[in-house]
Amino acid sequence: MKLLSTTTSITTLLLSTTTLSAPLQKRAPTDVDILQYALTLEHLENVFYRDALSQFPESAFLAANFTSAYYSNLLYIAYDEEEHVSLLSSALAAAGVKPVDPCTYNFPYTDPRTFVTLASILEGVGTSAYLGGAGLITSKEYLGVAGSILVTESLHTSVQRFNLGQIAAANPYGTALGLNPVFTLAAQFILSCPPDNPALPVMAFPALTATQGVPAAAGMMFTFTANGTVPDTFFVVFVSGLETTSVPGSLMDGGMISATIPPTAMGQTYVFVSAAETNGTIMDEMVLFGPAVVEVTPAAPVFVPDE
Length: 307
What we know:
Layout: H1 2-15, H2 31-55, H3 58-63, H4 68-94, E1 104-105, H5 112-133, H6 140-163, H7 179-186, E2 190-192, E3 208-210, E4 216-217, E5 221-226, E6 235-240, E7 243-248, E8 250-251, E9 257-260, E10 267-274, E11 287-297
Parallel strand pairs: 4-11
Antiparallel strand pairs: 1-2, 3-5, 5-9, 6-7, 6-10, 8-9, 10-11
Helix pairs in contact: 1-5, 2-4, 2-5, 4-6, 5-6, 5-7
């Protein structure tokens, strides 16, 4: 239960405040914009791992009941993120563009276990970001690079999930997120960015916070808090794998929102409050709040071996 309560507290911290510290510019993204956006995320992950590994030696992870094998994997993951920064920076420089520089960040972990919990969420978001951004890339060369990084980010996600005792592959399919939902999550760690960083064509939505302190499962009533006024009519939208599912939401006393988790939600799931019902793609103009991140334990698979 300690692990579950730690996961809940980190998720709450992750989604409690939206900080709009990065420069914003609303326009259609180009391939260069997508590379700068990816580099912005990779800078965040690179600093996240570098700072934690500078702060916590292997002995601290062992004391937190992680293994030496996990710590070794962690070093490889940190190296991967550094390489991603180098590759994207080189690609932008080759295109005649100044790459964005790292921002100043604030990550709400306090010990190895809260660090790993947050790492799992961030790696999941990173995987969703590359999957969601792939369709916006026009260059086949850039698309190949993005696909290569996507594979590595998904491997990182599985490593972190497995070592937290979660189902490593909780969903048969990856979950794509658009530019603005990903930025909404990432911006909460950004305190400030260099003033000469080019503006990105992204914006952050008002925050939606998962407030329930228990593990989630399909059929469970779950509660959220929205950072703003919720209209009388709204829907709670769960995005998980290839499924986007709208369910009726209820406004409770105290302003909290409640909704029942649908059976389509499995693993790291993104939750939005929408102005309209949708069981397809949730468009940016439909989003009122979110996304929140909810870890949903999938139902156990039924496997009948051939006789």
